[in-house]
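Hi R.,

Here's the chain you asked about this morning:
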Amino acid sequence: MTEQQTVFLAKSEVKAGDLEHKRKLAFNIQKYNDSVVKGKHQFSRLSIAREKAKNIKWKTIENLDKYLEQFEKNFTANGGKLIWAETADEALQAVLQICKEKNTTQVVKAKSMVTEEIHLNDFLAKNGIDSVETDLGEYIQQLDGEPPYHIVTPAMHKSKEDVAKVFYEKLGTEPNLTPSEITKIARRNLREKYITAQVGITGGNFLLADVGGVCVSENEGNARLSTTFPATQISIVGIEKLLPSINDLQLFWPLLATYGTGQNVTVYNTIFTGPRKANETDGPEEMYVILLDNGRTNLLRKEVRESMYCIRCGSCLNACPVYKNIGGHAYGATYSGPIGSVITPHLKGMKEFKHLSYASSLCGNCTEVCPLKINIHEMLLENRSLAVEEKLNNFSENTTWKLWERAMLSRGMMNIAGPGIKSKVVNKLFKDSWGKHRGEIQFAETSFNKMWKARKKH
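And the predicted structure, written out as tokens:
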């Protein structure tokens, strides 16, 4: 058992038994579900819209090299500077070099999962640069010293009382603040950072090949402030975020908003195509885009290629019975939930993270709710097969499954042991997993097989 798997099992056990944690999570997910049902009404033919979006992403990923080159050509033609980063370290070093050139000691950062993926905040802190999260949810998590809990809603596991406690402990505010008071304090603290920061950092929801644009969707306006006041803007974006044309946004922006938060469209949607032009009044003097691979090309293998269609709406997390029980932090990876369980083994190593693909009931609800109809649960099965093909399962696991297969394929072998023996064997084998929090399994005196034979006989 790897260290990652040990930690995952330990955290999962704690969270699955934490009723208050599950109550908060269920409450927030239910609010999401109610909003999404309403948001879907904006589509007259939702299924066709989802199919069309999937086909656009299929076309993009199948021609990824061409669209990446087209994006680079158009973005640099607008005065932007593009950096290719094959690894997380290359992206980090590129950001550090830019910050050193600008002699900056402080940056403001809009919500970005890819910067969480490369642990940008910690890296900058080690190099004497203060990186401040400006998204309210991310700001709360940063104050509390925690990573994001959810792809879309970073502090989903916290109640308003929890947030008030964080502000009281970290900022010395009055205890038991209301949500509006918390927002005002965060706004006041962050406004000063926007003005004094020399560099602003964002991610990107989409990249537009035909105009060389970076699209950022947000509800608070913090990304616009992070890119307007600082003289230098850096956008770090995964290579899979490409769309062929700006015209595709009329489909993808509403889909992302509906499945992400239940809105018809996100409040602020911005397209950055480069630094401020001579006739423009605001925007950065310089703009960099760092195109990050960091294992994404591993996802191009046919078994999991559809995972590159993901637009990070978070709908599969909210639908997953496993996520609802153990939460986001138990996964031990930047991307949690079903889609995280598909891509993390390929981004960070199958040996260390293959266990995530087994953290699934395979109910298929993740596939059902995905706006692009990505076959997530089937790719979890593919990951399991790949782990076996790469001989990553240990001897005891392989032996157990071989014996199980042989028994399940032989009705005679299953009928040899009576219900008493079956109960003893199963309860002994699974006493540390199934039996730890549940009563013992008792097999029926008469098996279904025998009941069926008796029925056919009479």
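The mean pLDDT is 94.

Let me know if you need anything else.
M.
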